[in-house]
Amino acid sequence: MKNNRITSLFQIDKPIIQAGMIWCSGWELASAVSNAGGLGLIGSGSMYPEVLKDHIKKCKAATKKPFGVNIPLLYPNIEEHMKIIVDEGIKIVFTSAGNPKTWTEYLKKNGITVVHVVSALKFALKCSEAGVDAVVAEGFEAGGHNGREETTTLVLIPEIVKSIKLPVIAAGGIASGKQMAAAFALGAEGVQIGSRFVASYESSAHQYFKNAVLASNEGDTQLTLKQLTPVRLIKNKFYRQVEEAEKRGATKEELIQLLGRSRAKKGMFEGDLEEGELEIGQVSAYIKEIKPAEEILNEIYAEFVETLQYLKQITY
What we know:
The chain is an alpha/beta fold. Helices cover about 45% and strands about 15% of the residues. The strands form two sheets. The chain has an eight-stranded parallel beta sheet with strand order 1-9-8-6-5-4-3-2.
C-alpha cells in the first residue's frame, strides 16, 4: 500500500496488525500474519521469559518478514522481557497497560520501533511526548483489557487523529474490510485486529474458547472489573460471580481474591468455559468460522480495497 505511514514504518505490505493477545498469539499466529503481508505480534503478557525467547526464535525460523512483540508494561518480569527483546534483535515493540515514558527511550536507543496502545486522548498525548513512533487507539468495543472511559472507536479515532501528528492505528470492533475502511475514513492509517484472529487455526487459544467465540451473539460480552483493570469478557459463570460481587459493593481486595491466579489461562488456553476468564471483543458476534490466518487477512484486505473503490463510485 503506497503513501501509508504504517506500511512504511513496519516495512509490510498491508496495514493490518494482529494484536498481541495473551494466550492466543504465539509464534504460529504471528508468523502466519507476517507471511501474509501484515504485521504479526507475539503476545508476551502470558509468557515466562524463557517461553518468550523460545517463541521469538521459532517465529524467526517461520518467517523472514517483520514481526514484533507486544508487552504489557505491568508485567512482573518486564526487565527480563526487555532484555530478551534487545538480545534477540526484535525491531518492533507494541507496549500497553502502562506509562509509555517508562521504556520508550530505552527501546528506541536500541533501534526498536515503539508503538503504544491507548484508550483515551490524554494517553495519546503522553505517547507523543514520550517519543513513540505510532499509537494504537483502541475503542472500548475491543476485547481484553480496556479503558474505563468506554469511548467507542468511532469517537476515539478522529479525536486522536486531529490532536497528534503520529500515525494512528485503529483497534476495537474491527474484523472486516468494511470496518477497516471506516477506520481509515476516520483518519487511521492502519488497523489492529484481535478477536478475528483468535478464531484462526494458528491461534493458540483452546478449541473450546474458539467455539465459544463462534457461538457468541450480540450482548454476550461485557466490560467489567473496572475497580481493577477493566476487561471485556464473554458472560459465563465467572463473569456472573464478578457481576454479583460488584453489585453488592465488593472491595478491590475481594475482587482480587475472586479473580485469583491464572483465570485467563484457565479460560482461553485451557478451555474452562465456566470458571475461566474469556476475553473477546464485541465483534465476536460477527465471527462465525475458523479460518487460516492468511485467509482472514487476505479477505479483510480485499474487502477493504473493494469498499474504497465502491465509495469512489458513489455520486452525491
